[in-house]
Amino acid sequence: MIILPYVLGICLFSMSISMFLCLIRLVFGPSIVDRLLALDTLFLNSTCFLIVLGIYWTSTHLFEAALLIIMLGFISTMALARYFTTGHVID
User: Which residues of 3-21 are buried (b: 16+ CB within 10 A; e: fewer)?
Assistant: First the structure.
């Protein structure tokens, strides 16, 4: 009996719940910092979701998509954090 598909299914379900909770925090966050942190966590959760889904489906294309999402997520988080602290992105 192979337990890996069951464990990956549980991981996908728990990450789906985590992504939903981050989405709720992103929409109803009390401050802009909470919304920014929720967006960053949502990027991280979606990357982990794609990696686990790639392992589950044994596909390598999802790993490339996860890499693109994490790069865009990092750049956008840094740009938004700079915009909210200084008021502009580029000097």
Answer: eeeeeeeebeeebeebbee
CATH classification of the domain holding 54 = 1.10.287
- Asked if the structure places residue 46 within a domain, the reply is yes
Whether residue 91 lies inside any domain: the answer is no
Residues 7-27: pLDDT tens digits? 999 999 999 999 999 999 999
Q: Which amino acid is at 27?
A: V
- R_g of the chain computed on alpha carbons: 16
Structure tokens at 3: 């337990």
This prediction has a pTM of: 0.84
